[in-house]
């Protein structure tokens, strides 16, 4: 099928997908040539947008050896620890003063600082880059890369820039180019005695020696530096932001994570990178037994159960819980099998049973799948709602200043002469913060939060 002038192949069966992704992988490995890649990544010279071939293979090897090998990654461990400590200090101060922290900004800037030092070996202030900062410019570039651009499908119309996108892309490219030129100029200056060579020096060395087996000029170095910086800073920050958002929305999981941290690491030291290997395995195990072999929505993505020894007796307990649920859900399904009175409306269970009986679903869907989804809905609705209220009340009781703010809002917005109605909730903006976390997404090459994540921290560490 053609999108404008661009031929596209839609693959919809596992056999065809295997042909494209395995058998003929090399023919289809390159990303499409996009206007964004042309304007922002120096005519597609970055690793992300370069076509598959000797240049991509050699650059990938160079990046892996000089930047991403275990040895190099470990050599930056102290720097990562220092950056994280600075963030923890900010959270400690905010906890003492009971003020909200803009976690999105703080995490983005920590991630940029880490990536800057890893790729360029020095830290830069946001304003040295552009008034939008690193995060702002990278996010704009990521959005441009996936936005619908007429020029990608109708090359002749693209030249007219009817959507104004080329102008915006050139603007982003200019900001990057000025910044990267400055870095290359700094690295061109003679080194002091004993100063070690960094990633930029290595690439400049290859350029000066002229003995690369592929075309390699200043623009290739700039494209790769931009690639490494933006691919690492934005992805890492966004992953942390979404993880924290999900933990804040699911207090039960947050409590479990906190408990694990207390037991495995303790509260009198910061988590070290080496501690990460001692993570627990409870989610995988619980999924197998309680959720009908992971057929429900929440546990579908987890991997296979590894241990059969059941040394902790957990399997036995989970199987017992699963049996109770199964009996209850079987009863519900049996009751729904009784023919309906005329005019009686169908509910969610009826609809699922209809789909199962009609056989129209183009995926496997039997009685166990229906029970798994019902279990999901029940557990997700009952437990999370009750726990969210429990947790919010405990946090309010623990933080008298926040409780005072909530009480003031209630007095001002609702008044003290009536009970709070469900319809009043929309106008209680401050109370809404702990109860309802906004999870709106912003579409881009990396899907980020649309709105910044803000939270008031409680400090639990006892560092000397
Ligand atoms: C949590 C962090 C990260 C996530 C979620 C992530 C995710 C991804 C994904 C989904 C792809 C596309 C893979 C494909 O098309 O097959 C990708 C590609 C890439 N990532 Fe990451 N990434 C992360 C961190 C990093 C870091 C730290 C770097 C570099 C320092 C990096 C550099 C790259 C590069 C250069 C590519 C393009 C590779 C190519 O097409 O040849 N990423 N990443």
TrEMBL record:
Localisation: Membrane
Q: Name one GO biological process term.
A: coumarin biosynthetic process
Q: Which cofactor does it need?
A: heme
Task: State the superkingdom.
Answer: Eukaryota
Keyword tags: Heme, Iron, Membrane, Metal-binding, Monooxygenase, Oxidoreductase
UniProt-listed Pfam families: p450 (PF00067)
State any GO CC term. membrane
Molecular function (GO) terms for this protein are: heme binding; iron ion binding; monooxygenase activity; oxidoreductase activity, acting on paired donors, with incorporation or reduction of molecular oxygen
UniProt-listed InterPro entries: Cyt_P450 (IPR001128), Cyt_P450_E_grp-I (IPR002401), Cyt_P450_sf (IPR036396)
Q: Which residues lie in coiled coils?
A: none
Family per record: Belongs to the cytochrome P450 family.
Q: What is this protein called?
A: Cytochrome P450
């Amino acid at each position: 099928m053609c999108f404008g002038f661009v031929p596209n192949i839609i693959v919809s069966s596992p056999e065809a997908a295997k042909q494209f992704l395995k058998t003929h992988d090399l023919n289809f490995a390159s990303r499409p040539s996009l206007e964004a890649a042309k304007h922002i990544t120096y005519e597609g010279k970055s690793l992300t947008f370069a076509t598959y071939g000797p240049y991509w293979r050699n650059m990938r090897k160079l990046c892996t050896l000089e930047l991403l090998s275990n040895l190099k990654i470990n050599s930056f461990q102290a720097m990562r620890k220092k950056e994280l400590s600075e963030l923890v200090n900010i959270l400690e101060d905010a906890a003492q003063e009971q003020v909200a922290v803009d976690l999105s900004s703080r995490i983005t800037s920590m991630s940029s600082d880490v990536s800057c030092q890893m790729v360029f070996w020095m830290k830069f202030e946001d304003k040295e880059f552009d008034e939008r900062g690193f995060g702002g410019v990278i996010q704009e570039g990521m959005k441009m890369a996936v936005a619908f651009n007429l020029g990608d499908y109708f090359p002749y119309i693209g030249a007219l820039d009817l959507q104004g996108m080329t102008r915006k892309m050139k603007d982003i490219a200019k900001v990057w180019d000025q910044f990267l030129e400055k870095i290359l100029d700094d690295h061109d200056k003679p080194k002091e005695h004993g100063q070690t060579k960094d990633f930029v020096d290595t690439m400049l060395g290859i350029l000066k020696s002229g003995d690369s087996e592929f075309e390699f000029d200043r623009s290739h170095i700039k494209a790769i530096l931009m690639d490494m910086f933006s691919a690492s800073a934005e992805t890492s920050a966004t992953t942390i932001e979404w993880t924290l958002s999900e933990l804040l929305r699911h207090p039960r999981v947050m409590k479990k994570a906190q408990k694990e941290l207390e037991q495995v690491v303790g509260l009198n030291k910061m988590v070290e990178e080496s501690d990460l290997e001692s993570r627990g395995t409870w989610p995988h195990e619980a999924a197998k037994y309680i959720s009908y072999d992971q057929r429900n929505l929440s546990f579908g993505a987890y991997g296979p159960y590894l241990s059969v020894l059941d040394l902790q007796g957990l399997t036995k307990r989970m199987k017992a819980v699963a049996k109770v649920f199964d009996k209850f859900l079987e009863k519900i399904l049996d009751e729904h099998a009784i023919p309906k009175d005329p005019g009686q409306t169908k509910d969610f269970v009826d609809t699922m049973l209809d789909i199962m009986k009609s056989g129209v679903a183009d995926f496997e869907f039997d009685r166990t799948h229906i029970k798994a989804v019902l279990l999901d809905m029940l557990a997700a609705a009952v437990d999370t709602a009750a726990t969210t209220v429990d947790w919010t009340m405990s946090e309010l009781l623990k933080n008298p200043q926040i409780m005072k703010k909530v009480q003031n809002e209630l007095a001002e917005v609702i008044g003290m002469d009536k009970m709070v109605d469900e319809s009043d909730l929309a106008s209680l903006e401050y109370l809404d913060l702990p109860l309802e976390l906004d999870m709106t997404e912003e579409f881009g090459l990396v899907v980020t939060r649309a709105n910044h994540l803000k939270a008031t921290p409680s400090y639990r560490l006892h560092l000397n």
